[in-house]
Design brief:
Helices cover 60% and strands 10% of the residues. By secondary structure, it is mainly α. It has a three-stranded antiparallel sheet. Strand 2 and strand 3 (36-37) form a beta hairpin. The chain is globular.
Length: 146
């Protein structure tokens, strides 16, 4: 099971995603609230958006546990939250395509976090997400909140 600060990641995701009361088209889907999947024309309150965000954080936690099963001890809270943020942002299916990054973590007893960060910096995700990606990658590299 992933170890992380639930309050801290929720606040970080709220800040990263911002709040949108009305659904909007976001690359591949309708998005509403704090960056969660919505429906065309959907309107949501902050309270309902926060509840939905909690459910999506639980999904990101489960996805983290699936993605890094047997490797959890390699992560501190900050790195766990950074990868959960990425999983929230792009989903497990897309994250599983990061073969080099995952190999740098799973292929060794002690991951070279600088190499993990360097791999992430070469991704399309890094180019598309901007400042959020820069912060997340720095947290993965250093193991400390940026």
């Amino acid at each position: 099971m992933a170890i992380y600060d639930k309050v801290r990641i929720k606040e970080q995701l709220k800040e990263d995603e911002g709040f949108r009361q009305r659904a909007y088209w976001d690359r591949k889907q309708w998005t509403v609230g704090f960056g969660t999947k919505g429906a065309k024309g959907e309107v949501i309150t902050r309270e309902k958006a926060a509840e939905r965000l909690d459910k999506h954080i639980e999904i990101a936690e489960r996805d983290f546990d699936v993605l890094f099963k047997g490797h959890e001890e390699k992560f501190n809270e900050v790195r766990t939250e950074a990868f959960m943020n990425m999983l929230f942002n792009m989903g497990l299916g897309t994250m599983m395509k990061f073969k080099n990054t995952l190999g740098c973590i799973k292929g060794t007893k002690n991951p070279d976090w600088k190499k993990v960060a360097a791999n992430l910096k070469q991704s399309l995700w890094y180019k598309q997400v901007g400042e959020r990606a820069k912060r997340i990658v720095k947290e993965i590299e250093t193991g400390e909140k940026a």
